Amino acid sequence: MNREKQAPPRPVDLPDGCTIFNVPILLHDMTTLLVSTIGEGIRLKAQGDLYKKEKDALFAQLLPQPPDESGYLTAHEGRLTEAHDWLFCMEFVSHSGKSGKSTALKARQAGKEWLSGSEADRLKALYDFMIKAHKKNKQSKWMGYNEIPFLPDNPQRRTTPNGLNVEVLAAKAFNSCPVDQWMYIKTFLQWQVEQENPFNLSQDNSIEQIFRYGNGSNAERENRWLRVLQRFLQQRLIPLGAAKTAFDSKGNHWFAITPVGSYILGATDQFAYQTKEIEGDIIVQPNFEIVFTAANPFAEGELTRYAERIGHGLGTLFRITRTSVHIALNSGMESRQILESLEPLSSKKLPANVIAQITDWGNSFRRVSLKKITVINCPDSATALRIHALFPKKTNLITDTLLEMHNNVKDLTALKTKLKKNGIGID
Q1: How is 222-288 classified by DSSP, letter by letter?
Q2: SS3 for 329?
Q3: How many angstroms separate the first and last alpha carbons of the chain?
Q4: Is the dihedral of CA 213, 219, 225, 226 positive or negative?
Q5: Of these four, 168, 185, 349, 409, which has the most CB atoms within 10 Å of its CB?
Q6: What is the band of 232 on the pLDDT scale with cuts at 50, 70, 90?
Q7: Is 0.90 surpassed by the pTM of this model?
Q8: Are 280 and 296 in contact (CB under 8 A)?
């Protein structure tokens, strides 16, 4: 279809009364889920699914579901599954237990290190993970089964080094928007679909393969490109905080690429993330409860790491407890970091008893390691010394009559044979 060339859409001013949504909700979902995996982890069914009790408890900890008008589109499997997939693919969590039996979802060391970082550091890690996937795609490398694609709905099965790349073109489309300036979504998408649609403008074989089972009509090509752009905005840019959206009561929608959005889109190599200023008071009370007088998703995301959620909306939303602080400490945070995070959130000076108690919990906290060992129980100290002399590099004396076998001794057959040859029987 030959259409008259139209000028690209220009930024607009938001009308009064709009609601703005600007929350990296995927970051907060991942943080909430990861916090719950510290220590013993979360029970999983044999198939790897969460039990209903654990799932319900986790849902209660999440930020409220964004309104449909925000433009955010929950992944088909749900927010918790999406958060799990990201944590698993980034090797922040692992499944423990034998195959076919009930397992647990546990935080790995890399996940604990990520959790102890600032919101900016944690978000940048997600962006860098996406950028890495994007580079693989541009190099025509296979993504693998456990990787998350840069583009959530990419109909291009494979790329060629010199051919068109749908991921690159989608990023280019959103890079055409000035940073932090509002674009009317409907106008932007319509212009991209009608004027800059690579599915209409190209004869590249990898593009033509997309429509091998369809009729390849202009309508089909336009609908397919529209879906690519919509899903990229709804399932990547918005939940990662790379784009913010606005809507009004009449059903109008706008979006704007954020400064960090230009980083993930490849327009800049500078990650310029700024936390949102607090609107209204957030008060840390002497009874360790935290009161919100205005909504602040950023503060909620920070507090999730070291406080227990006890409410939503406004009012008393969190309580600092010994258990919640211990979870944060076990993730790698220090009491000093907890206080440094908490202090700027509070509109009033932190209560002295809260500071003292968090510091005390930090000073008394210790981390130990658990391991299984193989021991040799001897009838007397003389026998223990004889065995230690036979295996000086493979055993340690624990007591006068107990020896510990080193972990690097995997096969005990040779050890048993040598004991028998030296006149030492085995029960």
Answers
A1: HHHHHHHHHHHIIIIITTTTSEEEEE-TTS-EEEEE-TTHHHHTTS-S-----PPPP-S-EEE-TTS
A2: helix
A3: 87
A4: negative
A5: 185
A6: very high
A7: no
A8: yes
